[in-house]
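User: Quick sanity check before I run a bigger batch. Here is a single chain. Can you write out its predicted 3D structure?
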Amino acid sequence: MSDTEQSSQERAVDHDRQESDIETGTDDLLGRRVGHVAVLTFNRPERRNALSSDVYRGFANALPMIAADQDVRVLMLTGAGGAFCAGGDVKAMNERNKAAADGGSSPSAEARTADLRRRQRQVSLALQQLPQPVVAALPGAAAGAGFSIALAADIRLAAERAVLVTAFSGVGGSGDFGGSWFLPRLVGAAKAKELYFLSPRLTAAEAQSLGIVNQILADDGFDEAALEYCHRLAARAPIALRYMKENINRAETVGLADALDAEAAAMTRTMSSEDHREAAAAFVEKRQALFTGR
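Assistant: Done. Predicted structure follows.
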């Protein structure tokens, strides 16, 4: 490797570690960018990162910015304080129920449905449709809607101590945030029904054996290891990654002929990119390719 090539790779590594903030508009969902990786962190550790109106607002603010940022190649979604996300805030639900029982005002069923539909689209649908790959890094429990949101990611990493549970049957709910759409595609309809009906607490190893978790990382140093995984992913050709995600998402809803036609268009586009030319040259020269997303 020449001195110029080594200097270029060192600059690329340095860029991968530069940090800046992503403005979410709330402390309940923190945002930062580390090189080419955007990181969104559920930040209500005192409630095991249960969802809140501010969390939804944070997603609504941050995800469109991330989607439009060509310099962001991967999104990592994780949680603070040793948990991923406990889902709905059951304590807050109980308080609202008590207030309504005492004669307090309550929104109509139609208004609540419309609000939930909007939030689900701002979070689960937006994650699934985000151009960049999404990695859910689970340092601990992912339950209820938190589990559903993890399922909306493209890849799931779990700490050894992580526990995953649908949880809805335990609170008398049917489920939300897309779990009933994502889970059967990973484990099959019959297993998904069992996991919803009986709500067993899955260990990380059990979730991996079912195909829900892609990789298990050690508890110690989990955050750093998960971020390093995302950096390795971000080092891949970003245009190709975006088209791969688009192709696979599309394949859920179209026939083979349409999928083949879309693959042909995407392959032509990616093989015409500067990144492809760089990758071919790097292969011949036996060096690591440095992708620019062009």
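Residues 109-129 form the longest helix (21 residues).

User: Great, the batch can go ahead then.
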